[in-house]
Amino acid sequence: MVLFLKNRERFKEEKMDDPDCDPVLLDNTYRQFVIVNRLLSGWKHIYKRWLKPKMSVGETYTVLDIGAGGGDVPLSLIAWAEADGYNLSITAIDPDPRAFDYMLKQDLPNTLMTRCCSSYELLETGEAFDFVISNNVLHHLPESELIAFLESSQLLAKNFVIHNDIVRDDFAYFGFAVLSKLFFHKSFISYDGLLSVRRSFTKKELEKFMPNNWRLNSAFPFRHLLMYEVTVQHVS
What we know:
Blueprint: H1 23-40, H2 43-51, E1 60-66, H3 72-83, E2 87-93, H4 97-104, E3 112-115, H5 119-124, E4 129-135, H6 143-156, E5 157-166, H7 170-183, H8 189-199, H9 203-209, E6 214-219, E7 223-229
Parallel strand pairs: 1-2, 1-4, 2-3, 4-5
Antiparallel strand pairs: 5-7, 6-7
């Protein structure tokens, strides 16, 4: 039940969005995203439940990660897939050049490619990927852009789309307030994370914007999984 966070808070900018923000705090934020996503985003479960069953050993599958940030999610997916005998070739994109620069500072495997661009730019070039994913991107979008974003990711996918995002919920807000102030220091994690919860969607709000044939699942803790599966129509 949402008691206090009745409306999306769209008028405040996250501190990370400030082009003049402290570069040390920004790098610390990208670095701490690894811990936040491992604890709260549930990608290990998503990989096992939704992606792994769609793959076969010996085949190579392409993945597009939209808004990849520091790149920890695609790095984790590659490691999990490799341990299970699957091959992933991931393209991690982010329109923020600072995120792109941070990814380039890391020791990236040759199966992870980075590009500073948006999903719309890829759509214009006619590119397509087996799987299209995003992590904590939906709440950054104004409602007027949400449908176009979902439709573009659908067009970029040959198999499956999954957008993983935060649920706007009071318990999520206050729980993250305690967790972040205890464990995440000298970064924007606490301030921006709490603002992200306030700007995220409820289940009813997302359902209003879902295109046809999309479905919305819930995951622990306080996560939306907005998914689309490409269906092959056979001509008789």
